[in-house]
């Protein structure tokens, strides 16, 4: 089996996954509030608790998957593998182990594999949002398997 790749293109309107571990949820809520106008035109999704809190505190519409520890990270990972999600804002906790650490790792692996922008903190999220590409079509490299 050999690996090859093909180029996929995002739409101008992005589907953005928003996720935060408990100790970082307030930080994500504040970030989304700050950038509400920029985020509003895009399709927002997130893991269960994060999505609910974001809807409550920002009144943006955020479609929720299951809660992270109950399989939400895996659902977001599957959506990335289906090429449905264009970027991942994931404020994961660098100071506390999670019971579903393997799921977190799997999500980050799939996001790297499918070549989507990933922000683990506000600085990176700000860079992504201020990128010229944020409201344009951008290309990404999808790894494929080819029979040799
Ligand atoms: O645990 C998470 C990501 O790994 C987040 O899940 P919740 O948004 O349901 O808290």
UniProtKB/TrEMBL annotation:
Top-rank EC class of the record's enzyme: lyase
EC number of this enzyme: 4.2.3.3
Chemical reaction(s) catalysed: dihydroxyacetone phosphate = methylglyoxal + phosphate
Domain MGS-like: 5-148
Any one of the GO CC terms: cytosol
PROSITE patterns documented for this protein: METHYLGLYOXAL_SYNTH (PS01335), MGS (PS51855)
Source taxon at top rank: Bacteria
Designated name of the protein: Methylglyoxal synthase
Gene source species: Isachenkonia alkalipeptolytica
């Amino acid at each position: 089996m050999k690996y090859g790749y093909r180029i996929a293109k995002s739409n101008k309107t992005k589907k953005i996954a928003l996720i935060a571990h408990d100790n970082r949820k307030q930080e994500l809520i504040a970030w989304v509030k700050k950038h509400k106008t920029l985020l509003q035109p895009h399709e927002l999704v997130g893991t269960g608790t994060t999505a609910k809190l974001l809807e409550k505190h920002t009144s943006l519409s955020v479609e929720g998957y299951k809660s992270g520890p109950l399989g939400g990270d895996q659902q977001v990972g599957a959506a990335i593998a289906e090429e449905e999600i264009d970027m991942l804002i994931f404020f994961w906790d660098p100071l506390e182990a999670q019971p579903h650490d393997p799921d977190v790792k799997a999500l980050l692996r799939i996001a790297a594999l499918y070549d989507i922008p990933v922000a683990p903190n506000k600085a990176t999220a700000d860079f992504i949002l201020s990128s010229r590409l944020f409201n344009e079509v951008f290309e990404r490299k999808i790894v494929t398997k080819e029979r040799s």
